[in-house]
Amino acid sequence: MFRWWWLSVCLVLAACSGSDLPEDVPPGSDSGTSIPSPDAGGDAGTDGGLPDAGADGGIPDAGFDAGAQDAGSDGGQGDAGSDGGAQDAGTDGGRDGGSDAGCVRCESPPPPSCYDAKTIVTWFLPGYCGSDGGCQYSSLYESCQYGCSNDACQPCPPQCDGRECGDDGCGGSCGTCDDPQSCGGGGLAGICGPELGCGSWSVGASLQVARAHPAAAMLSDGRLFLAGGLTGSGATRTAEAFNPGTNTWTSQGSIPDGGTTPGGASNSFYSFPGAAQLGTGKVLVTGYADNAYARFDPATATWTPGSGITTRLQPLVLPLANGQALVASGITEGGDRVLLSYTYDDVAAKWNYSTSREGRYRAAGVQLADGRVMVTSGIADDVYGQAARSAELYDPVTNTWSYTGAPRRPHAAAALARLQDGRVLLIGGTSVRGFFTGTAVRSTSVELYDPATGLWRDTGFLNVARSGHTATVLADGRVLVAGGVGADGKVIPWVELYDVETERWTLTAPLSTARTSHVATQLEDGRVLVTSGTSPTGAALASTEVVQPAGFCPAHGCVPESDDALCARQEAGCGTLSVQDACGTTRQVSCGQCSLASSCGGAGIPYRCGAPGGAGWQVETLGTAGGRRPGIVIEANGEPAVAYLWYDVGGGGGFTYEVFLARRHSQGWSAAPIQGGVLSSNVALARTSTGQLRAAATMRVYIYSSSNEVPTLLSWDAGRWRDEVAAPTYPVVNASQLAMGLGPTNEPLVCTIDLVNYFHTAELLCYARDDSGEWRRDRVDAPGSYGGAPSVAVGRDGIPHLAYYDMNKKALIHAVKGDTGWTLETVDASADVGRDASLALDAQGHPHIAYRDATNKDLKYARWTGSAWSLQQVDTADDVGGTPALALDAQGRPHISYEDLTRHNLKYARWSGTAWELTTVDASGVGGANSALTLDASGRAHIAYYGQDLRYARGP
């Protein structure tokens, strides 16, 4: 629909002379739609060149003065008043090229312009002279389907985000596929994928019995053997084998009923048996009953029952190079994890036992090239389903278990694959607790283990987060991962290939049937066979599918995203979004709800939980976190980054946490994990002089037969986070709280309270690298076990300072390191003072400390003047001073954030130069504990703290 508007435009000089016109966006009334022309000097005084902007309010002379002198509202004196004394008919009559009484031509309409974000206005010929002597033009208002910007209707935006082929939504194309691929051929809309004959999956012979979680073993005669598993009506004892030569499945009888499992047991404990072929050719099967095992003879298709081994279900069963089989891990029907492991010698008909280091079930294991067995992953918590993080090695020669390097993150329902060079991949799985509660978080992480060093490192991340998947090492060295459960908890068909050289994962032809808890193996003829499993509806599957992977054509790009991923991409923490995923599908996505005292958008940012703060402060809720003190820095863009601990609050406590890093952007926050398996301690965060981030946390590391709770340094390097243990291997340490400072050349100093025991004998230890790059430990003091983390600052001269609470003396201590060691001095011993001390150094290297007076329940501040300590009471109202954080501005003035423990509010103190100014930042009454404070370049305060959940406050 078009609308015609006849608008009066007075173009005194510019239109008549054909010169360029000033540009203006017309408002919505006739009196304001004319295009004003400057009075070419005569009005260049008070009104700045605008027409009659003085006494007559900027209305053009096209009104009552009809081109004559302004004898009306400006008193009959022409423009002698507000325009500096020049008359329109006189003074500017000779200066603007002619009289305002008429025009010669009207041939220069204004250019098109945006009326609003969706409408463009066009001025067009013919023009004509109006009664005031100026040129007037007609205008046309027209809707812009895709919006108006830069004074033009915008073209149709092609919808090719995440697509590489097919219709772009604008009558064009996102591209075409080269043969033998076609658009959507890989099962992903808008993506080039393989056709039949190019690595696509084809239907294979169906199982005789549908089953999930069966025991599987590749027999020496090339057949695939399956036994047990879970059917739709309960656990099955049936067995069958696949013959690649005939492409048929044949029955192999049933596992003898030699244990305590009822014949039709529906308990899922009985759905995870294990199997391994022995050196004699027979197959050992166990885990289908509490205390039973059986041997199957493939030559005669007969079974021999056995019993009397330690009760276990869901075990790990692996063949060994010496012809024996290892039975390890597992769980009893009563829920106890089993430490006792066995090896079975079929020649001697004998079980030998040993004891593993950690109990776990549904573990992942693989035999290494040297004959040892690596065991990792699994579930380490029989109540809440917490994922296991440690790794251990079994040596069949010595029949012993030992710890090896722990993976960077906990994993459950992950997959292990031994590469052809002997290294091991740990792929995906659930990374946090919640396996049984429905809150499991699937991971895209993949870690690479080197048996030569016993260490893990990150390698290429999966395209699709998953657990319950399979990993198969192909003949050409690539690793094929298939199926599983995706990030949204749904069973998926997606298949990926790992290239060892590039360490990259590539999506390829998906399975015909989405499945999890299945079996995948490469047959002797090179085909990959995928069989059994659970379907998206929860049904046990009898279907199989096969592929010849040599000709796999990769499919890149579009992967259906989970709701959580879409919310994260939109940086939304609450509310409902209508958002388009990477496959072009628009969905309504629920991003969660806010807790009490917060509302969605309450902090002024849509889809983020928050609440207005006091005195112009802005308060935002970042989300659930671990409750310990976070770290905060300002990045190069002027926005904060916060490092904090995260855990599943529905998990009922526990010991495994993850370090997350949250970054603030114009639309809100985004957060990502940077380290798993850390302990429940605070997190330190610092920014180097080159802008890189360094974080520190405590972590449990297994060394020989003991576990150390050590400080770990996390560094952003080459596009990923790297971690290194900042502690020598001996003696054993038990780090509880920590702090970190960076020296003038960015070298880290990490200091911890080491809990030797809980009877006030904890030590204060500091860790730094020596000239060779090795970490060295330095003992500072033995201040007692409680009182918070120490605070660390390193001066421009490289001299480190510490402030901390000595519980034995109930005093605030300052320590400084010189050439001969640490010098300790008592700063304040007037009462029980010094808890949670926070230290900063000024430009002169003088220390400033904020701390709590627990006796008088006050916030105090100490400053070294150069010759003595000056002590002040900052806030004495209520019970105040909880977990203070101190920062100094460019003038060296202190700023302190702290908790009002009486009212459970976050408060802020600032020294004005003459007095302390106190402000309540968050008066929600849900807490302001464990605050971390930093100042940006303008001196504005940024605070991360815990008020029922993790929050962020930004100063006015």
TrEMBL record:
Database matches in SUPFAM superfamilies: Fucose-specific lectin, Galactose oxidase, central domain, Kelch motif
Name of the protein in its database record: Kelch domain-containing protein
| Composition skew (Gly residues), residue ranges | 73-84
- Where composition is biased (Polar residues), the residues are 244-254
Cite the record's Low complexity compositional bias ranges: 49-72
Q: What residue stretch is flagged as signal peptide? A: 1-22
Q: Where is this region: Disordered?
A: 23-96, 243-262
The family database entries (InterPro entries) matched by this protein are listed as: Gal_Oxase/kelch_b-propeller (IPR011043), Gal_Oxidase_central_sf (IPR037293), Kelch-typ_b-propeller (IPR015915), Kelch_1 (IPR006652)
Keywords, ordered alphabetically: Kelch repeat, Repeat, Signal
